[in-house]
Amino acid sequence: MIETAVDGDVTRVTLSRPDRRNAFTESGLRALRSAVTGAETPVVFLTGEGAAFSAGADLEVVTGLGHEEARTFAQLGQSVATAIEEAEAVVVVGIDGPARGGGVELALACDVRVATPAATFAETGVSLGLFGAWGGTARLPCVVGEGEAMDLALSGRTVDADEALRMGLVSRVVDEPAAVAETIAGNDPAALSVLKRRLRDDADRVVQHAREADAFADLVERNAGDLSW
């Protein structure tokens, strides 16, 4: 269900299972992880084919799982989200249409989240007696704050692109999310990689500052003689 294409400095990764609203099976999750971690470009652009970004986990798969199988499936989804978060490339996600459950959770793991006006978001698992278990309960409060996260998760309500922008679930609402990925890819690849590492760093402030200074010095040395306005 995953298609990849390289265009210059951007690897386009497309969720391509539109007949199932790009819902994930185990093999689909593994394929996504391989596509993102295997990208050799400085930027990955993640998008969905068809009318939806992703419905998350395929409920036909989930329904047939026993307890240990369900745990394993959740851990697989968590590993994919973590792989996106820790990928060498900057991962930009373009959400055009509905993102539900695991689709929201995978988007939360991306470095830059961009929506079109047609995008909608919901954590609908609570209405089914479930919840998103691909790391969303940890990432959602960090992205939108505890109050907004509680509201979204416990109500299962749907928010549109404008509300998602207001709460910080996405950083931009644009007609062509791919253009954002292309703009980011126009920057220095080494600086992009360093910035992602630094902005993702969860060490204490003193350690962060030391790592920041070291990374800055490395880039200055690397680009010696080429720096100009």
Automatic annotation (TrEMBL):
One of its GO terms (biological process) is fatty acid beta-oxidation. SUPFAM superfamilies: ClpP/crotonase. It comes from the Archaea. GO terms for molecular function: catalytic activity. InterPro entries: ClpP/crotonase-like_dom_sf (IPR029045), Enoyl-CoA_hydra/iso (IPR001753). This is Enoyl-CoA hydratase/carnithine racemase. It comes from Haloarchaeobius iranensis.
